[in-house]
Amino acid sequence: MAERNFFSIGQVVNLLRGSYPDLSNSKIRFLEDEGLITPHRTPKGYRQYSKEDIDRLEVILHLQKTRYMPLNVIKQRLDSATDLSTLQYEVGLLSDVPIKEQPKETKQKLHPIEDIPDLLGVSISFVRSLAENDLVRIVKSPKNRELIDGRDFEIIRYCSELSRFHIEPRNLRQYVLAANRESTMFEQVLIGMLGMDTSDEDRDAKLERAFKKLHDLTDGVQTALLKNRVFESLHAVVEDADVDQIDDEITRSEAARDAAREAKEVSPGGIEPLSVARQRTRAQSGRTR
Hints:
Elements: H1 9-16, H2 25-33, E1 40-41, E2 47-48, H3 51-67, H4 71-80, H5 84-90, H6 104-107, E3 110-112, H7 116-120, H8 124-132, E4 138-140, E5 146-149, H9 153-163, H10 173-196, H11 203-235, H12 240-264, H13 274-288
Helix pairs in contact: 3-4, 3-5, 10-11
């Protein structure tokens, strides 16, 4: 059976407090007493919360905050749901739109900015904020109408999801700068990769496959670097005490290796180890002085 990852009650509070500032340990325990959540218990009785428990808790808090539902109604809603992810989507906590592939005609079309709220479920002011931070582009028609490129829909959806975590368009400006820097490198490499591709597929398919391969590799490096920086900052993965301990272990290992090497230097005739001979020579030289 695969190992499950659990969180303590304090970790759960820290995880959700950004969206629910009044959340506390006692409130979570109260919801447990009311039968809305049932965390796992260790043999010693400590509460442990799975990802599913946290998702369920977030649904409860979201319905209280946005729908003002009483707990008994929330419990009925949870108990009658076919699955939790569907309920999360229904109440507005999840959006499956970024996962869906856009129709080709949508990607290759300009859409009036007034249609965006109905198409994507975001406000016009949010789209303008994205444009102000160069995340998307507002195209002006000859009659001065504001149009949004369908190819930017994916960006708008992702940015909308990130706003749930209080990451605003201005916070994403760094990714615009990074994309501008990397695009030149990608263009140069992709030209070389396409030049070596002798298949009969059309150019767009070749470009899509080559780009995905290159992106997966560079994204892997970026993700690993970012994760290391974050975990080092939050958890102090390598502390000074750890470094001292490693130094001591290496010193003992080197001493043991030197001792083993000296033992091998003793010949069958009983000649003493070279290191001992050198020490005696230095001692005798010191006495003659």
